[in-house]
Design a protein that fits this description.
single chain, alpha/beta, Rossmann fold, 8 helices
């Protein structure tokens, strides 16, 4: 399957986890992939190239508007204007609300929501000009509320509102805008959550699996496959939606 031949895709937060899996999936289907992360994402790009794909790594802090603007200009020169944007960069700074610091509130909102604003505003300029674009942003099941994650939940709920609004504003330019809301996915981020509550990653996953209808936690590749669908022309009439990928959890 080569759904992304001659397409340029930008994936943020692509050094590990869902971002890395998504970059690998898009490249495997023919995309030229710009791999972005505030930490050097060279390993992901090298994996893509070793598999015969086309990728370049860029260091970018999505909270820095100037850095984002400059990186997208470089990508347009190196790989062509972006046809696909996957807003995946995210962090957690978990704590109960009564002791949540302003710094932890601001840092999570800045990366997880304002970073999406910066990247999407940079990408849409190219997409509008070419009358084509696919934007997929990462929300979360936590958008529905999760103890100890008031900051993260607020940011991920914001993604859903932003997605619905951008679908309205950008639809006239043949740009679709959707979000994916994963449940518990086995990543470094969820391992950090386990550590916060005093559990090993394995024990935490086992506890979550026990209350998940499918009886297990998810894998980054399973989220990547849904992102790939929404970024493809197979989803050409899907826009403004948030799709939950959570094993049937409620």
């Amino acid at each position: 399957m080569n759904r992304f031949t001659d397409r340029t895709a930008v994936v943020t937060g692509a050094a590990q986890g869902i971002g890395a899996a998504t970059a690998l999936r898009l490249a495997a289907e023919g995309a030229r992939v710009a791999v972005l992360d505030r930490n050097a994402p060279d390993d992901t790009a090298e994996q893509i190239v070793a598999a015969g794909g086309d990728a370049r790594a860029y260091v970018c802090d999505v909270t820095d508007r100037g850095s984002v603007r400059d990186v997208f200009a470089r990508i347009a020169t190196d790989l062509g204007g972006p046809h696909i944007l996957v807003n995946n960069a995210g962090i957690t700074r978990d704590d109960l609300f009564f002791r949540l610091s302003e710094d932890d509130w601001e840092s999570v909102l800045s990366v997880n929501l304002t970073g999406v604003f910066h990247c999407t505003q940079a990408a849409q300029k190219y997409m509008v000009a070419q009358k084509y674009g696919k934007i997929v942003s990462l929300s979360s099941r936590s958008a529905l509320g999760n103890r100890g994650q008031a900051n993260y939940a607020a940011a991920k709920a914001g993604i859903q509102g932003l997605t619905a609004t951008l679908a309205i504003e950008l639809g006239a330019y043949n740009i679709t805008v959707n979000a994916v809301a994963p449940g518990y996915i086995a990543t470094a981020m969820t391992a950090a959550t386990a550590d916060r509550v005093g559990m090993s990653a394995a024990d935490h996953q086992e506890a979550v699996a026990a209350r998940t209808p499918l009886g297990r936690v998810g894998l980054p590749e399973e989220v990547a496959s849904v992102i790939a669908f929404l970024a493809s022309d197979d989803a050409s009439y899907v826009s403004g939606q948030t799709l939950y990928v959570n094993g049937g959890a409620r």
